[in-house]
Design brief:
By secondary structure, the chain is mainly beta. The protein has 3 helices and 26 strands. A 6-stranded antiparallel β-sheet has the order 6-5-9-3-11-12. Strands 16, 18, 22, 24, 25 and 26 form a 6-stranded mixed β-sheet that branches. It is globular, with a radius of gyration of 21 Å.
Amino acid sequence: MSNRRTALVAAIALIATTSLGAQTYVGCPDLNPATSASNNTWPMGNYTEWRFQYLLPASCFPNTPFTIVDMALAAHGGFSSSHPGTYSSFQVRMALTTLATVTSNLVTNLGSTYTTVMNRPTFQWAYQYDTWVDFGLDAPMAHDGSSNLLIEIRYVGGSSQTLFKRAENPPGGSRVGANGPGSYNATTSNACPCTTSLPKTRFEIVNGFSMRALTPQVSIGNTGTIRGEFGNAGSTYLMAASLGNTTTIPVGPNCSINLDVDPLFTLSVQGNPLFTNYAGVVAANGTCIGQFFVPNLAPLVGTTIYHAGLTVNPLECTNTVSTAIVP
């Protein structure tokens, strides 16, 4: 029996006895979208162009490694009902940092090792009074459990509506930004730095083993790479690929993967030359790397391939990541 099938059988055998790798929520300072120290429109309102950054201290997060798979802001004030804001060239970037506070230098704040977790030509933030409003991030962000987190939100052609949000003053937190024409690529701020009224934020996180797409885009005729992170060294892992992510496959208590069971899924778990190292043993540093080859076929352009995985001993399920096939 192949390593892939051995891993899958072992995972099923552990269903009744393990319950790790669950997704949960983290808020700073809490998970209540209807209370806060103050309100603020920054960002998402008042200006049609922003490059906004805020720093959340490590104390806001678990002290063990985890992965951020989505984030939400707490909408409040301005409108008492649904009133979505629409934005263009919308990006969210995150970086782990040792900075104790943000400075007026936006480039230095972000650094060079950031992750672009959201990149949309257009985006509608579905404002709803006193509610957590999710962003729906495109990619996960791995956190080491010990660093501060720098979050940058920027856009061009945003809504000029006054969309208030709940704001908090977490000790060690700070914010800064540039607004107005030309701010999208601004290098220095014209607003703050300040240590109060940070957007009240909720994060959806995955504890333990997680997945990252090292190649979010792959050209036809080339190879893409995905990486499992924060796994248990020596644990058997299994990765899978699919053309869809609308099906939740239950593997065990608090452990499931979101992939459609289609022909690509079958090829990836049963073994096929298109997939390399989609099963094996997690390395000593907690990682495992899988690769997939995209045939040089023009009709594949525009396709999205989704990836997820699991480990056994202990049983942990990952988030789902995606790869876009481009020319």
